[in-house]
Amino acid sequence: MSQYGKAEYWEERYTRDPEPFDWYQRFAGIKDLVSACFTPESKLLNIGAGNSRLSEEMFDEGYQNITNIDISHVVTKAMQEKYKDKGPNFKYLHMDARAMEFEDGSFDGAIDKGTLDAILCGESSSSNAQKVIQEVHRVLGPKGVYLAISYGLPEHRLQYFEKPEYDWNVIVKQVHKPTISTSIAITNEDKDAPNAHYIYICTKGQQKGAKQ
């Protein structure tokens, strides 16, 4: 699975297979959690958007201010062309989530569907994961929400969110895996996870403490 942490892998993959692909969940599976965290007026960031249909399905549900970023030039260009008629607030940008080119406090919310998991597959995984989380924290405004969809059990993921330098309040939810689901397994312990995906809802500037 180590290739998931490499930009070159994603360039090759999206060149070879341009068809839409969704890791873990479609929007329907997390719709209730999204609506609890965000409103249609929220300015949202989709991290590692790839060619997932998540943002398209959210757009159709009224969430039309979404900036999608991905490390792959190939998929970014393809999505820019595919969604060129969606309007100026629905955009795809080539960008590294470890060093985002946005001003502090630019967004009300961020969604990460498997991107942190993919980064944890690669070299310098812990360091790179922390860079992403730090950048997400920076670009979110006061009380901004980072919604991370993961395969990883809480005992393997909370350590990344609950660092002293962050003021996240983290709540953990579970959603059932779809009948057909592709997941990135990082450790043997994660492979033994129950038939669920974990949603880490990290709210900025709130009292700390994890719930499940």
TrEMBL record:
Q: Which Pfam families match?
A: Methyltransf_11 (PF08241)
Biological processes, Gene Ontology terms: methylation
> What InterPro entries does this protein's entry cite?
Lys/N-term_MeTrsfase_sf (IPR051419), Methyltransf_11 (IPR013216)
Kindly state which keywords UniProt assigns to this record, in alphabetical order.
Methyltransferase, Transferase
**Any one GO molecular function term:** S-adenosylmethionine-dependent methyltransferase activity
Q: Domain Methyltransferase type spans what residues? A: 45-147
Provide the family line: Belongs to the methyltransferase superfamily.
Q: What is this protein called?
A: Methyltransferase type 11 domain-containing protein
